[in-house]
Design a protein that fits this description.
single chain; 507 residues; alpha+beta; 5-stranded antiparallel β-sheet; 15 helices; binds dihydroflavine-adenine dinucleotide; FAD binding; flavoprotein; BBE
């Protein structure tokens, strides 16, 4: 790690002294001089470009909390000794903001929640309490072990942490049938900026609204646990991957897909993974192949799907199958480090009007230039049905009615952590896409965090609403102002702050 020379050592010493006085056992406090510090810091860093960079600073200590009182102690001591606290659940933040700060003067500690990951399922009631440190894989597995007829609509990758994921919305293969993860949160417990533990009643409806997708990670407090309503899943689901090359009609099928996929019945989700030389139509249907085939032939004949494309399985088996491959087992979704760690840069867009065929052809010409620089994928997720039917102000996540699909652009590269050429290329593509995607604002998904959209500017000790609007409106549209108003009410001193946290708006 890069030691930060400007850190006031007295302040950090008194912060750590305060933690021990508040009964956090010393073996849960990992300071920069502890032998455990580096391995714990790195344990959930998913993007190696953040392992070694002089452009940011690392925490002065990491608290591996085991109980809620440890989180409360970290916040109370942090306030008292001017050390900010960042929560880390699964460490997947695309900009690494759960464990690094860009401003090298920033004094902060990380509260790592990976030891707080219990899942209590009440199958009779169809609900569960899940702690933020659980991964999605652990959540799905626990639900399935209690009641195979229940599931939960959240992300595709099993190593993603519940805490960060729910803080920004959370979507995956069940989004068209059931919407987002946060559409199913019925209660939560949160440690606020005073160190108090609040449930839904105690926090009030405004704050409860804000943490369901508007946290943007660490703006309002640290969410300890979430009470969620589970959803029914059928005994059999059918998963398929149909791949086409651009030379064999993939671009024409993709052009048609834009009109069809967002309007299909809610039981079917067909997403697209576009790569320079291959387009994969990856789908999940909540039912059998016999039911799916006539539906696909009627609604999407251009895909020319055949029986051999169908893979019938239980819903829980679809989780490893889709993310880890056909040889992976259900037990593999419990492995917290199953994803490979490569340098990536992620951006996102929302599309409200279909993109013409000739533009897609140009996009693929651009994609084919990238092969020398690294690798590139576009994950294109269709909206419509349930995810789009919920009012845009029901939760802070605003990308609802009228959205056809979300695009995630992922640029991968090896070697040079700066990835200069690959990044320049991905910026050029993002610029090229501008006229073809949503406008005023050009929308982006908060969970696909992108600091190129803008960073907070601190004015008189408080993050400025004026500057934050630039990125905030893109993640939250009209909900951004309400989020900032809630922030002013619950954390007027802007204690929970990062490069893209919600700033307070004082009326
Ligand atoms: P991490 O611990 O890094 O936290 C992210 C942010 O939330 C940070 O700002 C952090 O401080 C804050 N935070 C964490 N825990 C908190 C808590 N308990 N209370 C308050 N704030 C907290 N998204 C999606 O919708 N669908 C998908 O399928 C996928 N798939 C996917 C795959 C892979 C490989 C990656 C790297 C990412 C995704 N994502 C995704 C995006 C993912 O939802 C997003 O990065 C989440 O913020 C990750 O949550 P973690 O807890 O893992 O991150």
């Amino acid at each position: 790690y890069i030691p930060n020379p400007t850190i006031a050592h007295d302040s950090s010493k008194s912060f750590i002294h305060c933690l021990t006085k508040k009964s956090i056992p010393p073996w849960l406090i990992h300071t920069r001089s502890s032998s455990s510090y580096t391995s714990i810091l790195k344990s959930s860093i998913r993007n190696p470009k953040f392992l070694n960079t002089a452009a940011s600073t690392t925490p002065l200590c990491i608290v591996t909390a085991k109980k809620t009182s440890h989180i409360q102690a970290a916040v109370v001591c942090g306030r008292r000794h001017r050390v900010r606290v960042r929560a880390r659940s699964g460490g997947h933040d695309y900009e690494g903001l759960s464990y690094r700060a860009e401003d090298r003067r920033e004094q902060f500690a990380v509260v790592d929640l990976s030891e707080m990951r219990s899942v209590r399922v009440d199958a009779a009631d169809g609900t569960a309490w899940v702690q933020s440190g659980a991964t999605l894989g652990e959540l799905y597995h626990a639900i399935w072990s209690h009641e195979p007829g229940l599931g939960f609509p959240a992300g595709v990758c099993p190593t993603v942490g519940v805490g960060g994921h729910f803080s920004g919305g959370g979507f995956g293969m069940l989004q068209r049938k059931h919407g987002l993860a946060v559409d199913h949160v019925v209660n939560a417990t949160l440690v606020d900026a005073r160190g108090d533990l609040l449930d839904r009643d105690a926090m009030g409806e405004d704050l409860f609204w804000a943490i369901r997708g508007g946290g943007g990670g660490g703006s309002f407090g640290i969410v300890v646990s979430w009470h969620i309503k589970l959803v029914p899943v059928p005994a059999t689901v059918t998963v398929f991957d149909v791949a086409r090359t651009p030379e064999h009609g993939a671009i024409d099928v993709l052009t048609k897909w834009q009109e069809i996929a967002p309007r299909m019945p809610e039981d079917i989700m067909v997403r697209v993974i576009a790569e320079p030389h291959r387009v994969t139509f990856e789908g999940m249907y909540l039912g059998t192949c016999d039911e799916l085939l006539p539906l696909m032939h009627h609604q999407f004949p251009d895909l020319a799907m055949i029986r051999g494309d169908c893979n019938e399985m239980r819903w829980i088996e679809s989780i490893p199958y889709i993310h880890l491959g056909s040889n992976a087992t259900v037990a593999d979704i419990l492995n917290r480090s199953s994803i490979s760690r490569v340098n990536t840069k992620n951006r996102s867009d929302y599309v409200r009007n279909t993109i013409p065929n000739h533009i897609w052809k140009k996009i693929f010409t651009m994609l084919q230039q990238v092969t020398n620089l690294g690798e590139f994928q576009m994950y294109i997720d269709p909206y419509g049905a349930k995810i789009s039917s919920i009012h845009e102000s029901a939760t802070p996540f605003p990308h609802r009615e009228g959205v056809l699909y979300n695009i995630q652009y992922i640029t991968y590269w090896n070697g040079d952590a700066n990835g200069t050429l690959a990044l320049k290329w991905s910026r050029d593509l993002y610029k090229f896409m501008e006229p073809h995607v949503s406008k005023n604002p050009r929308e982006a998904y908060a969970n696909y965090r992108d600091l190129d959209l803008g960073r907070n500017k601190v004015v008189n000790g408080i993050s400025s609403y004026h500057y934050a609007r630039v990125w905030g409106k893109r993640y939250f549209r009209h909900n951004f102002e309400r989020l900032a108003t809630v922030k002013a009410k619950v954390d007027p001193d802007d204690y929970f702050r990062n490069e893209q946290s919600i700033p307070p708006l004082f009326k």
